[in-house]
Amino acid sequence: MSSLDIDTSREAAPVLVVAQRIDRGILLTAQIVGLLVMVALFVAVFAGVLLRYLSDHGAAWVNELPYLLFPWLCASGIVIAAQVGAHIVVEFLRHGLPSAKARWLIIGTEALAVGLFGYLAWHGTTLIRITSSEHYPTLGLTTAWAYSALVITCALLAVTALTSIVLALLSQRAPTALRQSPWSESSTAEEALP
């Protein structure tokens, strides 16, 4: 069972199914964005090296493109890590609590995350408005394209935290296995817990 699978005994709950679909959509979108950005960065760096080798000077767009795309690569990685539970967390308290209390601890921390990331996303739109008047000289794009990665990341993290609350409330899985990295050593052992 992967980190996004839901216990079949409760799968009929429509809210749980919607949360699962939202999570899968967010994860797939972040993976596609990350892949496309890595390919674009590779092509840009390769083109820059090739242009310098062939003509003794590079192209200005090759220098601007990484400034525009690197925030999106970081954003996709952050969202993917949140979706699969791979962020660094302090788990000793959660593992030391009984299952019901651990579930409520998760709900509380995820509610704080919804509030924090929602606040950052909302107020980040001001940053986008401010930076929309600044342009990259060669590409002609506004710097808001790069800064919007921060705002979209915060919004997706808020939605991920919200779906984590739904998972914690409705899923029959162990609280410590709600969002667990597929690379975690204990993923199969903890999923069997009631």
Automatic annotation (TrEMBL):
What the protein does? Part of the tripartite ATP-independent periplasmic (TRAP) transport system.
Top-level taxon in the UniProt lineage? Bacteria
Tripartite ATP-independent periplasmic transporters DctQ component domain mapped to chain residues: 41-168
Give the record's membrane topology. Answer: Multi-pass membrane protein
GO terms for biological process, alphabetical: C4-dicarboxylate transport
Q: Keywords in UniProt for this one?
A: Cell inner membrane, Cell membrane, Membrane, Transmembrane, Transmembrane helix, Transport
Q: Where in the cell is it found?
A: Cell inner membrane
Pfam families under this entry?
A: DctQ
What family does this belong to?
Belongs to the TRAP transporter small permease family.
GO molecular-function term, one example from the UniProt record: transmembrane transporter activity
> Quick one: signal sequence residues?
none
Subunit structure comment from the entry: The complex comprises the extracytoplasmic solute receptor protein and the two transmembrane proteins.
Q: Which residues form a coiled coil?
A: none
UniProt key word Transferase: no
Question: Where is it found, in Gene Ontology cellular component terms?
Answer: plasma membrane
Concerning InterPro entries, the annotation shows: DctQ (IPR055348), TRAP_DctQ (IPR007387)
Which residue ranges run through the membrane?
26-49, 69-90, 102-124, 144-170
- Entry protein name: TRAP transporter small permease protein
